[in-house]
Automatic annotation (TrEMBL):
Family: Belongs to the GTP cyclohydrolase I type 2/NIF3 family.
Residues the record lists as binding a divalent metal cation: H83, D121, H251, E255
InterPro entries recorded: DUF34/NIF3 (IPR002678), DUF34/NIF3_sf (IPR036069)
Originating organism: Oidiodendron maius (strain Zn)
GO cellular component: mitochondrion
Keywords recorded for this protein, A-Z: Metal-binding
Signal peptide coordinates: none
Protein name per its UniProtKB record: NGG1p interacting factor 3
Lineage per the UniProt record: Eukaryota, Fungi, Dikarya, Ascomycota, Pezizomycotina
NCBIfam families reported for this sequence: YbgI_SA1388
Metal-binding keyword on record: yes
Length: 315
């Protein structure tokens, strides 16, 4: 390779990385993200190191040290992290900060980082619609996006779903657990006047849905049930005092299963479609590629039941 070619390749990410970013942007346009607080897009553009990495991408909810270790061991070209690892302005990048250290290690390896975050939430057929798909109902966005790009009509943040006939709270909670994979339980709050045996029989006609932390979006909604990753203690109390029910699963448990069931196959399909285009080789799509979901990514909290082995010592 000539010196000029080496210099050129070092000023941009790898062809496959650029292909993946193009595919993610097509599925979840950055213009759908809530820029009032979010930090989406290409967060780390690592210089291309020809022959060093594979044509593979790793999907994760959180970019932790463990996920970075996984990507480096796998020799992935890019990490697509749902939550932005860079959320607020950085005044320095040092090895003393664990997140900054992760970014430095990835840059050294040539691995780029992209985050779509709330663009995935807002997109029709995206994360929030997927959560709403567990039930047959009419739905609408809590906060619609007024100027969505062509083909993304109906985009917006959060969903309100209304049933033609009420469903039982016990039925809804069972469907949520089935959708979200191997959860050991849910956190459920109901008005304190309801007797334990009657809780699963509460009739629900409407649900407000928000992945992650839903307090700012769900508070004050005229619905029977709030379904989200997490609410504060006082937000949950306020809801049940108003006669509502609440289901939470811990923040990222509302998000992680979506990567396996929807985002991974959608990205694979989009890249296969791109591979048929005239400029496919320019984007490193001339051969095989892989889109994988992190095996180590998980919510920092877990449900611990009283009978769980290993958590309680025999006395």
């Amino acid at each position: 390779m000539s010196i000029s070619a080496m210099s050129s390749s070092a000023t941009q990410a790898s062809p496959f990385t650029r292909a993946v970013i193009r595919a993610v942007r097509k599925l979840y346009p950055e213009s759908l993200a809530d820029k009032s607080f979010d930090n989406t897009g290409l967060l780390l553009e690592a210089p291309y190191r020809p022959g060093h990495l594979k044509n593979s991408a790793l999907l994760t909810i959180d970019l932790t040290k463990a996920v970075a270790d996984e990507a480096i061991a796998r020799k992935d070209s890019i990490i697509i992290t749902y939550h932005p690892i860079i959320f607020r302005a950085l005044k320095s990048i040092t090895l003393g900060n664990s997140q900054q250290s992760t970014l430095l290690r990835l840059a050294q390896e040539g691995i780029s980082v992209y985050s779509p975050h709330t663009a995935v939430d807002a997109a029709p057929g995206g994360l929030i619609d997927w959560l709403a798909d567990i039930l047959v109902h009419d739905r609408s966005s809590i906060t619609p996006i007024k100027e969505a790009p062509p083909g993304f009509n109906g985009a917006g943040y959060g969903r309100i779903v209304r049933f033609q006939a009420p469903l039982l709270l016990g039925t809804i909670s069972e469907r949520i657990q089935n959708l979200l994979g191997n959860l050991s339980g849910l956190s459920i709050a109901v008005p304190q006047t309801i007797q334990p045996k009657h809780k699963p029989l509460i009739k629900i006609s409407s649900v407000g849905i928000c992945a992650g932390s839903g307090g700012s979006l769900l508070n004050g909604l005229d619905v029977d049930l709030l379904f989200t990753g997490e609410l504060s203690h006082h937000e949950a109390l306020a809801a049940i005092e108003q006669g509502k029910c609440v289901i939470t699963t811990f923040h990222s448990n509302t998000e992680r299963e979506f990567l396996k069931r929807k985002m991974q196959p959608a990205l694979e399909a989009e890249l296969k479609s791109m591979a048929k285009e005239e400029d496919a080789k320019e984007f490193g799509l001339g051969g095989d590629f892989q889109i994988a979901v992190s095996e180590v990514d998980k919510d920092p909290f877990e449900f611990v039941m009283r009978h769980d082995a290993g958590w309680y010592l025999k006395t």
